[in-house]
Amino acid sequence: MPTTPLRIPSKVASATALGGLIALLAAGYALFAGGATAAGKSSGGRPGSAPSLAPIEKPYKPKVPSKFVRTVDNRHWPLKPGTAFHYRGVRGHTRQTDNELVTHKTKKIIGITATVVRDTVRQNGKRIERTFDWYAQDRYGNVWYLGELSLERKHGHMVRASDSWKSGVNGGKPGIIMPGNPRVGDRYRQEYYPPGEALDQARVLSLHGTTTAPYRGIEHGLLVTSERSPLEPQTEQKYYDPGLGEVKEKVVRGHHEVFWLVAISH
Predict the structure, then answer these.
(1) Are 235 and 252 a contacting pair, CB within 8 Å?
(2) Domains present along the chain, CATH in parentheses
(3) 208, 189 in Cβ contact below 8 A?
(4) CB distance 238 to 249 below 8 Å
(5) Closest among 249, 230, 234, 132 to 187, alpha carbons compared
């Protein structure tokens, strides 16, 4: 805003001129206040929105809804038990595969029944990572991330990783992995577990993104998000096809990493 000081008319100015100036200032203030209120609503004041329920501000206090549904059917993150998503990609200079299976298992966490997704990463045919992620959908359509049991290969054995966490244990708090009604500019926290440095945040970049993936070729009308952690130098973008799920993820700042959806099995 301009910083030039306001000059009040001299005492010889008419009362009419002074009254007009006051009215102009009042109108300007009302316009500014109205604009600020509208901006506040668009940035996360919507009831049930991801920014309002899982804000990135500190201290983090998620507003977990009291009602959750049994089925995770968010159109950008559908998790039908028995479905497997198969990805292929490169991390650094090494080719890897990533297979995500929506299991028929559930797990009770902070009183919420979560769907268990098994995620397995292989390199040169050998399993190097296996994660059991726990997701649940609230009545607004938001998919909450309630924690994970992460295993990694060390000295030939799969051992528990330090970034394993569970909501309600040792300061772990749930976040939202996928909004029910995403809007461009939405920012929300995906996970919160400081001891394991699990502090991922996301921002919605577009609802009409375009990319290319082996599964369907060129795709349009995609949800595009940017994800990062304040503790890591990298940023990645993810692309979601409505009705299908994630089709691509790529590190755009940091090391070289990209994965594409190549197949879906049931």
Answers:
(1) yes
(2) 62-265 (2.40.360)
(3) no
(4) yes
(5) 230
- Kindly compute the dihedral angle of the four CA atoms of residues 58, 59, 61, 62, in this order, to the nearest 10 degrees: 30
What is the Cα–Cα distance from 223 to 208, expressed in whole angstroms?
6
Q: Which two tokens stand for residue 98?
A: 């990533």
Residues constituting the chain? 266
User: Rounded CA gap, 136 and 234, in Å?
Assistant: 27
CA-CA distance, 115 to 106, in Å (whole number)?
5
SS3 21: helix
Please write down the HEC assignment for all residues of 85-138: EEEEEEECCEEEEEEEEEEEEEEEECCEEEEEEEEEEEECCEEEEEEEEEEEEE
Q: Which residue has the tokens 């201290």?
A: 59
Q: Where do runs of H (alpha helix) occur along the chain?
A: 15-40, 50-53
Per-residue model confidence as pLDDT tens for the chain (266 residues): 444 333 334 433 443 443 443 343 343 333 333 333 333 333 456 889 999 999 999 899 999 999 999 999 999 999 999 999 999 999 999 999 999 999 999 999 999 999 999 999 999 999 999 999 999 999 999 999 999 999 999 988 999 998 899 999 999 999 999 999 999 999 999 999 998 788 999 999 999 999 999 999 999 999 999 999 988 888 999 999 999 999 999 999 988 999 999 999 99
- The two tokens of residue 167 are 């909501």
The CB-side HSE value for 129 (13 A sphere, CA atoms) comes to: 18
